UniProtKB/TrEMBL annotation:
Pfam families: Prismane (PF03063). This is Carbon monoxide dehydrogenase. PANTHER family: CARBON MONOXIDE DEHYDROGENASE, HYDROXYLAMINE REDUCTASE. It catalyses: CO + 2 oxidized [2Fe-2S]-[ferredoxin] + H2O = 2 reduced [2Fe-2S]-[ferredoxin] + CO2 + 2 H(+). [4Fe-4S] cluster 2 binds at residues 51, 54, 59, 70. Its cofactor is [4Fe-4S] cluster. GO terms for molecular function: 4 iron, 4 sulfur cluster binding; anaerobic carbon-monoxide dehydrogenase activity; hydroxylamine reductase activity; nickel cation binding; peroxidase activity. Its EC number is 1.2.7.4. The lineage of its organism: Bacteria, Bacillati, Bacillota, Clostridia, Lachnospirales. It comes from the Bacteria. [Ni-4Fe-4S] cluster binds at residues 259, 295, 333, 451, 481, 522.
Length: 630
């Protein structure tokens, strides 16, 4: 085995610089240049003090003009903007969840989509009080899917999955009117509250932001995760690789990008088809390589070991390799830049969802009924494009790392059972993990999530923070582009145990895990909620008492704000490296960083200095340990 060494951000950057040289040859634009054109950013926008929700404005708050034309002050404006931002994220995650519910509804024994994890389906049905006895599994799938879909619009009651939380958490939600009702209602209500002439009281706006966030985390996202598992299998540890070097020069390269696994699962299926591989060979390639970007990539990495070409800010790089026959996208986080960029190369930019339609793309509409034939068409299109490559433009940076991924909550519980000899019941027990934490072998856990962002040096905060935390015996669970940053660096290689403190290293050896556990895509942050809830229940604690914090050091999207709201809303202190356009209001800052503790026992910390951010997380974890007397 070759010697193990983490890849540095400098190495990522050198690879990117080389790709930008290719770009320059063909006149390609890239985000690196657009950032320059957009700098300096609008100060009013950055501080969240610009309001354009009615045409009396736009109004921007300054010393000279402390109120908008309607009389709204800065706190109301920042608060409304914050709530709208959250609603956008909650809607997006939840609509993804809804699509998955529909896919589950369309599943059939002879259909494109089948039930791969019937046990999980039955477990959820029982949890929801749906009769399972003697039912055909597809009848049950339809019934569960329909019940799930009702969660979006039911007139009465709150989200079913809230029952998974410890009682203490549920009480807090009830008491503070934070328990999310129908998902669509929370999104609509947020838009209603932030309409001209409705709420301008920051407390009310933040409370609703938390409720809308919770409807995402414990509603839309959780259904997205659970039903994806039912359809495509609950992830188990699996080997894969990460970074651009996973693309293979001699093969047809298909890159999947976006979030909904329904598309990418099918693409992977057909890329494996011997008939397709033979066709690729006929066209002069040696085979077919599917790799991924963003959360679609995380989904197929977790379940199939499909390699991860990169995270968010690497999406242009895959095209710049000159070796990408097709970049196939579904929804979310897709740069519209991919259209014009693909035109500079032979790459086909294929959009598939009516929700994400873009200029300069080929639209091959994907739906549950025709998924098979459409996937086949896409794979075939990519294969036939191989011959159009311009060999002089081909350069794939030879950077990649091995990664063990696939750590669903179920898989983590199972893996950690190797550490002690506790009995495991059907679902496993978190006792061994709790013992590691109580004894101090592990000091705690950090959920590292979210995007990378040109506002900071991309990937640096993710990687540096993880290195610092694992060296301090803090285990990391990661998702989204943060997980991919870790994988690219090598932190998901089991050999990364050597950069850990002695306690975590021992746990990694005994349980045979890497120190950073890949929990999946961003909707899979719901897995983290379930894990935290289970740990708290098993320990007889509030979630807020666990030595666990969340961190999104480079986040950028509306979805990330929704996530932040549901993570603090679930009692987990959350550390951000990018300000959510809230710093223009002292009252909003106070509520978000302190005031929310009164309702949910957790709050945000915003800190742009990476060292200080890491220190603050460690201090928080130690503070929680001290409070527990461990
Ligand atoms: Fe998108 Fe989920 Fe952010 Fe990555 S981490 S840039 S939201 S892909 Ni969710
Ligand atoms: Fe200006 Fe008030 Fe209209 Fe906002 S709602 S644009 S602050 S007048």
């Amino acid at each position: 085995m070759s010697e193990f060494k983490l890849t540095t951000v400098e190495e990522f950057e050198a690879a990117t610089a080389r790709l930008l040289e290719t770009g320059a040859k063909v006149g390609a634009d890239a985000w690196q240049f657009r950032v320059k054109n957009q700098t300096p950013h609008c100060k009013f926008g950055e501080e969240g003090v610009c309001c354009r929700i009615c045409t009396m404005g736009p109004c921007r708050i300054t010393k000279k003009a402390p109120r908008g034309i309607c009389g709204c002050d800065v706190h109301g404006i920042v608060g409304r903007n914050y709530l709208k931002f959250t609603a956008g994220g909650s809607a997006t995650h939840s609509d993804h969840g809804r699509e998955i519910c529909h896919t589950l509804y369309e599943s059939a024994a002879d259909g494109c989509y089948k039930v791969k994890d019937p046990d999980k389906l039955i477990r959820i049905a029982k949890e929801w009080g749906i009769e399972t006895e003697g039912k055909d599994i597809y009848d049950l799938a339809h019934e569960v899917a329909e019940t799930g879909l009702m969660e979006y619009g039911k007139p009465f009651g709150t989200q079913r999955f809230l029952k998974r939380a410890p009682e203490s958490q549920q009480e807090l939600w009830e008491k503070n009117e934070l328990a999310p009702r129908a998902i669509d209602r929370e999104v609509s209500c947020s838009l209603h509250m932030s309409h001209m002439g409705c709420s301008s009281k920051p407390e009310a706006l933040v409370k609703q932001a938390i409720r809308a966030g919770l409807s995402d985390g414990w509603g839309g996202s959780m259904m997205g995760t659970e039903f994806s598992d039912v359809l495509f299998g609950t992830p188990k540890p699996i080997e894969t690789e990460a970074n651009l070097g996973v693309m293979v020069e001699d093969n047809v390269n298909i890159v999947v990008h976006g979030h909904d696994p329904s598309l990418s699962e099918m693409i992977c299926e057909f890329a494996d088809d011997p008939e397709m591989i033979a066709y690729a060979k006929e066209q002069g390639a040696k085979g077919i390589t599917v790799s991924g970007v963003c959360c679609t990539s995380n989904e197929v990495a977790m379940r199939r070991g499909i390699p991860m070409a990169g995270n968010f800010l690497q999406q242009e790089n895959v095209v710049l390799t000159g070796a990408c026959e097709a970049i196939v996208v579904d929804v979310q986080c897709i740069f519209p830049a991919l259209g014009p960029l693909s035109k500079c190369f032979h790459t086909k930019f294929i959009t598939t969802s009516p929700i994400a339609q873009m200029p300069d793309s080929e639209f091959i509409r994907f739906d549950a009924h025709t998924a098979g034939e459409k996937a086949k068409l896409i794979v075939r299109t990519a294969i036939e494009n191989f011959k159009n490559r311009k060999p002089e433009l081909v350069h794939i940076p030879q950077l990649k790392q091995k990664a063990t991924v696939g750590y669903s909550t179920e898989a983590i519980v199972k893996a950690l059972d190797g550490v002690t000899n506790s009995q495991v019941d059907e679902l496993g027990t978190t006792k061994p993990l709790l013992e590691c934490i109580t004894s101090g072998v592990l000091r705690g856990a950090v959920a590292m999530v979210g995007c990378n962002n040109p506002r900071v040096r991309p990937d640096l905060a993710h990687i540096e923070l993880m290195k610092k935390l694992v060296a301090n015996d803090i285990i990391i669970i990661a998702s989204g582009c943060s997980a991919q940053a870790a994988a690219k660096a090598g932190l998901m290689d089991k050999r990364a145990k050597d950069v850990c403190g002695a306690g975590l290293k021992r746990v990694c050896e005994l349980a045979d895990i890497p120190p950073v556990l890949h929990m999946g895509s961003c909707v899979d942050i719901s897995r983290m909620l379930v894990l935290a809830a289970t740990l708290a229940k098993d320990a007889g604690l509030h979630i807020s008492q666990l030595p666990v914090v969340g961190c999104a050091p480079e986040w950028m999207s509306e979805k990330a704000v929704s996530i932040g709201n549901y993570v603090i809303g679930s009692g987990i202190d959350t550390f951000l490296g990018v300000d959510p356009y809230a710093c223009g209001s002292s009252e909003m800052v106070e509520i978000l960083t302190n005031g929310t503790k009164e309702w949910v026992e957790a709050a945000f910390t915003v800190e742009k200095d990476i060292e200080k951010l890491g220190d603050a997380m460690i201090a928080k974890i130690e503070e929680k340990r001290a409070a527990l007397g461990i």
